[in-house]
Specification:
Helices cover 32% and strands 21% of the residues. The chain has 624 residues and is α+β, with helices and mostly antiparallel strands. It is globular, with a radius of gyration of 25 Å.
């Protein structure tokens, strides 16, 4: 049964032209190489092409004046709009009603397989169709190359469309707009037109990456590409095995996670965007268009829960190939093609979303010391060995043993933790827990492979790490696991303890931790802050949505299913009109904050839904 279409919303043209839309007012399309954000008004306000991490050509979400956009705005002072996905696809439909008629825009990026070869041609297809009466669109195509720094040189190719070329050879970007319509150029680097449609009439506008000149005719094969793309997404989602409550939302989250995967390497980006703020007007604005080992591995938990193990295999093979024989040099994040240096810079010419500066490119966390990466990698490898693909002697000797060696050398050191604090390093309980996970999984792998000498030696270390956590990581005054040794502040990340099998959710210490975490970090009875402690940065932030989903799962595992389900129901209501989640939310206003859509949040939603659906007090497999 199809998901009901959302309600119509009244929009005013003046507001859309002068104000920033809420983050929640966007949908996502993509082709497994990059993606675009399309507003409820039909405007493409964010596109980096040909890759997720390429310089933007549309970035009006970060600067309405300088960023550039591809607007297809109804030419009326006010109109109604609604937006939805074609069922079980990532094909986005935006419908409009005006005083004169109805129309819709169908947006998609071609994405399908031909004889097991992925086809994604760097195109956005936009089909404008009048469905009732007559309708007028105001079109403005304004690419701004290299994050809004450059206006392109435009050339018309008669009978085909227009070519857009960056004037800077060092940051060369090339686009084509394929259309039979002749458009006006009201200013340099811009094309504009008014398109009038009668019932049944349609216009196709195709954006294609690459090509100074267009050396072919206007044939875009839009209808065939639409059919193939629709079939690809429906075939992929049909392999999801989930049949529990919130099925439509779970499948939508799965489709979002798949959209955030870079097909050539199977890397998964943390989010589609950079620098959407954690606080309006604040400085906590980060670039998430890269692949964190942690986030990606957690996403694989979600794919496994849904029956999609092929994603796990592809990603693990890629990560293993990069870090083979480099146990001491494993870093927490990579570029989507394996790039290691992700030096962070600020784009001072952009004003930022609602004046939230700076706008950042790159992420300084790439060079941080984070202990959890060791446990996360060995947990993922353990999962692979247990469920899908056995570990051979070379992988054991040159990958598993190298990571164990790194843990032995480093587990007593302070680190930057899961939240990548930019202040001083601390002995985070969460990080120590993952060191325990690393050794625990290594012990089990060694036992499977008959490496008794290794397993005996590592079991001693496993007990030592556990004892350190249970003594130094426990706050007697709070009756809770603490954020870091020597501190009585709490951390929502400790709710992962049952999920990684460090401690049962029904253990008295864990039950007490759940209650203290709720008492200190929960806002409005549903939104959980990750922590409330000085982290070396100015300003504040919203509540982290994944933390609330961790709480749902933790309570479900503790046998408190009714309470967990009530919390889940309240969180489901805070997805946007398409079922998408951002990184954070303002508990006071309900406004979405942070980069969007966020893989981490959707992963948390899926695993929480599966846990509730299973209605079990036992831990699920995750990657363990």
């Amino acid at each position: 049964m199809a998901v009901p279409k959302p309600n119509w919303r009244l929009l005013k043209q003046r507001d859309l032209l002068t104000k920033y839309k809420p983050i929640a007012d966007y949908g996502l399309i993509g082709d497994l190489k990059t993606c675009a954000l399309i507003g409820i008004d039909g405007s493409i306000d964010w596109l980096c092409i040909p890759r997720f991490d390429s310089p933007s050509v549309f970035a009006s979400i970060l600067d309405k004046k300088k960023g550039g956009a591809f607007r297809t705005l109804p030419d009326y002072e006010s109109f109604e709009s609604r937006q939805y996905y074609e069922y079980l696809t990532n094909i986005l439909v935006t419908e409009f009603k005006s005083r004169s008629g109805k129309a819709r825009i169908t947006d998609f990026m071609p994405c399908f397989k031909v004889e097991n070869t992925m086809v994604s041609c760097g195109e956005i297809h936009r089909i404008l169709r009048c469905t009732s009466g007559k309708f007028v669109f105001s079109i403005r195509f304004e690419p701004r190359m290299n994050y809004g720094r450059l206006r392109p040189i435009v050339e018309r190719i008669k009978g085909v469309g227009y070519s857009f070329v960056s004037p800077d050879l060092d940051t060369r970007q090339e686009l084509a707009l394929i259309t039979s319509r002749k458009l006006e150029s009201p200013e340099r680097g811009v094309l504009a037109s008014t398109i009038r449609l009668q019932k049944g009439e349609s216009v196709k506008l195709v954006l294609r990456y690459g090509g100074v000149k267009i050396h072919h005719k206007e044939a875009t094969w839009t209808e065939i590409k639409l059919r193939e793309t629709r079939a690809f997404w429906r075939d992929w989602v049909s392999k999801c095995t989930y049949e529990g409550k919130w099925k439509d939302m779970v499948l939508r989250s799965a489709l979002v996670l798949k959209l955030l995967q870079y097909a050539p390497t199977n890397a998964i980006v943390a989010a589609a965007t950079t620098s959407l703020p954690e606080e309006i007007g604040g400085i906590r604005n980060w670039d998430y268009r890269y692949s964190w080992i942690r986030d990606s591995s957690f996403v694989l938990w979600a794919f496994h829960e849904l029956g999609h193990n092929e994603e796990a295999l592809g990603y693990l093979d890629w990560v293993r190939s990069i870090f083979y024989l480099t146990g001491e040099n494993i870093q927490v994040m990579l570029g989507i093609n394996g790039e290691r240096d992700l030096t962070e810079t600020c784009l001072d010419h952009l004003s930022g979303y609602k004046s939230s500066k700076p706008v950042r490119v790159g992420n300084a966390a790439w060079d941080q010391f984070q202990l959890d990466v060791y446990g996360i990698l060995l947990d993922a490898l353990y999962f692979s060995h247990k469920h899908v693909k056995r570990i051979n002697e070379k992988v054991y000797n040159y990958f598993v043993k190298q990571i164990v060696k790194a843990v032995i050398s480093n587990w007593r050191k302070p680190d930057c933790g899961i939240w990548e604090v930019r202040g001083r390093r601390e002995h985070f309980v969460y990080s120590k827990m993952w060191c325990w996970v690393a050794i625990d999984r290594a012990v089990k792998i060694a036992e499977w492979l008959g490496k008794e000498e290794d397993s005996q030696r590592w079991r001693v270390l496993r007990r030592k790490i556990r004892l350190e956590i249970m003594t130094k990581g426990w706050s007697k005054s709070k009756q809770s696991f603490r954020r870091a040794f020597g501190s009585d502040k709490l951390d929502a990340a400790n709710l992962l303890m049952p999920q990684v099998r460090f401690l049962r959710a029904t253990d008295p210490m864990m039950l007490s931790t759940i209650e203290r975490t709720k008492a200190e970090l929960l806002s409005k009875e549903k939104f959980l802050y990750r922590y409330l402690a000085d982290d070396g940065l100015e300003g504040g932030e919203g509540a982290f949505l994944i933390c609330s989903f961790w709480l749902v799962k933790c309570m479900a595992l503790a046998g408190r299913g009714s309470e967990a389900e009530r919390l889940m129901e309240s969180l489901v209501k805070h997805a946007n009109h398409l079922g998408l989640y951002s990184e954070e939310i303002d508990p006071n206003t309900g406004e979405m904050l942070g980069n969007f859509p966020q893989a981490f949040t959707h992963m948390g939603f899926i695993t929480a839904a599966v846990s509730l659906s299973n209605n079990s007090t036992k831990t699920t497999d995750t990657l363990s």
